[in-house]
Design brief:
The chain has 306 residues and is of the alpha/beta class. It contains 10 helices and 7 strands. The chain has a domain of 130 residues: Glutaredoxin (3-Layer(aba) Sandwich). The strands form 2 sheets. A 5-stranded mixed beta sheet has the order 3-4-5-7-6. It starts with a helix and ends in a 16-residue tail after the last helix.
């Protein structure tokens, strides 16, 4: 079933999934649709949602109105139009429908990850409710990662930093290319997420949380992204992007160069520790001999001897 058709059915009532209708859990203004086997998950999300909303209020002083519709899936339903096996995405939001979709198999095993991913997706809903103009994808994703302690919808499997590699090779993606469409390849998609977060964190570090919030408020009032940034920072977007990239090169290139010799460095450190341990033992033994009992001639003696 096409995703848009699926969502239309969802808005009218429970959606068939794998031959079984979805169940519905409501409470405190929140509506959750879930696969029959995920009732406990639905209750967990319902209990977690007020905390997430309050944390977003603390950041933006905005609340989602209306509250998002949440769909919890096992990640097996073909009716969603999403091939979960082929995508690194573990959740997503459709702000124009106030919908958050969670793949429970990927987010439900770790309470901390569930909290941060839910916060990330609700942040998307919140931003698009307040900012009626089209947000650039880099700003949308960057703000939501910053708000959710760096968490994104992507699986949290350990990966080398694409950003470090892109800086060292000069292959950063210009922010203008990340305004609307997502990169087609998975590697570029991962890099786009890292760049989006990195640039927003740079803005917060330079101009403070209040600077970022003021930019978003100006955009919500109808200013363009470029004008909003200029009014708050007195700099152009291109100038800020260039300064951010320059700030990355110092520590990133140092890290990349050091990492190329990581094994050699670790081996040298371990060798020094072994040498230091040997020297300490030798010093202790010598000190023990020097402090030991001696006869009248100054040589080591036996105290029990007559």
């Amino acid at each position: 079933m096409d995703l848009l058709v699926c969502l239309l059915v969802l808005s009218l009532g429970p959606l068939p999934a794998g031959g079984e209708p979805l169940h519905v859990l409501e409470g405190n203004g929140l509506t959750i649709h879930y696969a029959p086997s995920l009732r406990k998950a639905a209750r967990e999300v319902r209990g977690l949602y007020p905390e997430v909303e309050n944390e977003l209020w603390g950041l933006f002083e905005w609340r989602p109105e209306p509250k998002p519709l949440i769909l919890i899936t096992e990640g097996k339903e073909s009716s969603l139009g999403v091939d979960w096996e082929e995508t690194p995405i573990s959740a997503f939001a459709l702000p124009d429908r106030d919908l958050v979709v969670l793949n429970w198999g990927r987010v439900g095993t770790d309470p901390l990850r569930l909290h941060d991913v839910l916060k990330h997706e609700v942040c998307h809903i919140l931003l698009h409710q307040r900012v009626k103009t089209n947000l650039p994808r880099w700003l949308d994703e960057g703000v939501c990662q910053w708000a959710s302690d760096g968490m994104s919808e992507l699986l949290a499997a350990p990966r080398p930093s694409r950003l470090n590699e892109a800086v060292s090779t000069g292959n950063l993606i210009p922010l203008k290319q990340l305004e609307r469409a997502s990169p087609p390849s998975e590697n570029d998609l991962l890099l786009a997420y890292e760049e989006s977060k990195g640039f927003v964190v740079y803005l917060v570090n330079r101009f403070g949380k209040s600077g970022l919030i003021n930019v978003l408020k100006l955009i919500a009032e109808g200013d363009s992204v470029q004008d909003s940034l200029s009014r708050v920072t007195d700099e152009t977007l291109d100038g800020l992007e260039s300064d951010w990239q320059t700030s990355l090169k110092g520590w990133t290139l140092w890290f990349v160069n050091i990492s190329q010799y990581l094994y050699e460095i670790l081996f040298a450190v371990m060798a020094l520790l072994v040498v230091w341990g040997f020297m300490r033992q030798a010093i202790k033994k010598r000190a023990y001999r020097d402090d030991g009992p001696q006869d009248e001639s100054g040589r080591d003696g036996d105290l029990s001897a007559p």
